[in-house]
Amino acid sequence: MELFDITGKRALVTGGSRGIGLALARMLKEAGARVAVFYHGTPVKEEGFIPVKCDLLDAADTRRAFAEAKEALGGIDILINAAGLHKKDDAEHFPAEEWEEILRVNVVAAFRVSQLAGREMIAQGGGKIVNICSVRSVLAGDRSSAYSASKAALLQMTKALAKEWGKHHINVNGLAPGYILTDMTAPSMNDPETGGRLLSHTPLGRFGEMEDLKGALLFLCSRASDYVTGILLPVDGGFLC
Ligand SMILES: NC(=O)c1ccc[n+]([C@@H]2O[C@H](COP(=O)([O-])OP(=O)(O)OC[C@H]3O[C@@H](n4cnc5c(N)ncnc54)[C@H](O)[C@@H]3O)[C@@H](O)[C@H]2O)c1
Q1: Bridge partners of 35?
Q2: Which of the four pLDDT bands, split at 50, 70 and 90, describes residue 1?
Q3: Of 11, 174, 197, 218, which alpha carbon lies 20 to 30 A from 236's?
Q4: Can you tell me the distance from the alpha carbon of 126 to that of 207, in angstroms, rounded to the nearest whole number?
Q5: Distance, CA 103 to ligand 1 centroid (Å)?
Q6: Sign, Cα dihedral of 110, 116, 119, 124
Q7: Residue 19 alpha carbon, nearest atom of ligand 1
């Protein structure tokens, strides 16, 4: 068996209807996995995906959606927690409900889906969980108290789950993309001043492309990473330097 082979693996991707989640779901599908995606809002109309509607803010809906995805896939080998929310605001004015919503999607929901997947993976003797963290898991962003707190929490949750579930052969890792143009990052990246500053902190001298995430994704989802758990793998052009 090839080191990076994931043919026939059963994968669930949250936030799979657009942006990074959709790109990662496509990569898994192209690599031969069977892929279910959670979408919220616009349905995902991609050939070959199992689309499952899910509002991650709703615990009951998440349980229902997970059961549906598991049933359609016949189990779960790979979970990618890619759903996320971001909003910039001054800390002294940040509306409390929006601050909490960011934590609820980025951390609480990621835990909830990990718990559901973890139970299945424990029963079947192993699995791979990849949490889409951020350079903001390590370096705080401008006017981004909620997002920075949430992504740091997601990284620490990654390590905590890796510690607990190592004995069950479940690898739990974080992938930290650098700046890639999506609906979420367009306001910062398209602003000449902010975009220029972000680029000046990127040693490789360019923003990321979806394709840049492929090697790290396949590594973290395949046998190649069987002795790797609890890490943050930055794919960020060197931003964290
Ligand atoms: N774009 C970047 O440069 C970048 C960098 C680092 C990390 N990330 C992370 O990558 C992930 C994807 O971000 P993106 O840039 O593609 O942004 P995006 O806004 O295009 O995607 C976010 C996804 O989360 C989903 N989502 C939000 N709230 C939800 C809810 N209540 N229920 C279900 N789904 C919900 C959305 O439907 C969407 O599919 C996020 O976790 C983000 O923090 C992005």
Answers
A1: 11, 49
A2: low
A3: 11
A4: 35
A5: 13
A6: negative
A7: 16
The alpha carbon of 155 and the centre of ligand 1 are apart by a number of angstroms equal to 16
How many angstroms from the chain centroid is the CA of residue 211?
Answer: 15
Pocket test for ligand 1, best of 37, 40, 87 (most atoms within 8 A of CB): 40
**pLDDT tens-digit series, residues 5-57:** 999 999 999 999 999 999 999 999 999 999 999 999 888 888 999 999 999 99
Start-end of H helices in 80-131: 96-103, 109-124
- Nearest atom of ligand 1 to the alpha carbon of 23: 16
Residue 131 contacts residue 110 (beta carbons within 8 Å)? yes
Burial 199-208 (b: 16+ CB within 10 A, else e): bebbeeeebb
Nearest to 5 by CA among 77, 83, 80: 77
Supply φ then ψ for residue 49, to 5 degrees: -95, 155
Cα of 86 from ligand 1 centre, angstroms:
8
pLDDT in tens, 179-202: 999 999 999 999 999 999 999 999
Catalytic residue numbers read 147
DSSP per-residue codes, 127-159:
EEEEEE--GGGTSPPTT-HHHHHHHHHHHHHHH
